[in-house]
Design a protein that fits this description.
- The protein contains no helices and nine strands.
- The protein is mostly beta strands.
- The strands form three sheets. Strands 3-4-5-6 form a four-stranded antiparallel β-sheet, with no helix packed on it. Strands 7-8-9 form a three-stranded antiparallel β-sheet, with no helix packed on it.
- A hairpin with a 6-residue loop joins strand 8 and strand 9.
- The radius of gyration is 14 Å and the shape is globular.
């Protein structure tokens, strides 16, 4: 979500049981093409983006972990530097069932491969 478009970035979360919605503000560099919620729903991750992505961020080439804070803020941790990754291949991050790893694909070594980062 962008409110207003192109200036302030948010990621939204909806409780499917109650319908309650929450928006969490992101810095431009923290915006990601994809977001995924951990299996236990206590944190989430994002796969960053390239300069030609929606956020147009020159420093957003990271896999991020986001922990929920009070209000609409997130605590952000950079996990994997994707500066040499070609975002034409989407990382498509996933959590392992025990929430101890983020599994993703990348081509930052010159070829496509599957990687994992321990949380």
């Amino acid at each position: 979500m962008q409110k207003p478009r192109g200036e302030t970035f948010f990621v939204g979360k909806t409780n499917v049981y109650t319908g309650e919605e929450e928006d969490y503000e992101l810095q431009r560099d923290e915006w990601s093409v994809h977001f995924v919620t951990s299996w236990d729903q206590t944190f989430m991750a994002g796969d960053g983006g390239a300069e030609n992505s929606v956020a147009h961020s020159p420093n957003g080439h990271w896999i991020y972990r986001f922990d929920y804070y009070t209000g609409n803020k997130l605590k952000t941790e950079k996990l994997v530097n994707l500066k040499n990754h070609d975002y034409n291949l989407e990382p498509n991050i996933h959590f392992s069932p025990d929430d101890k790893w983020i599994i993703f694909r990348a081509n930052f070594e010159g070829y496509e491969n599957i990687y994992a980062v321990e949380l």
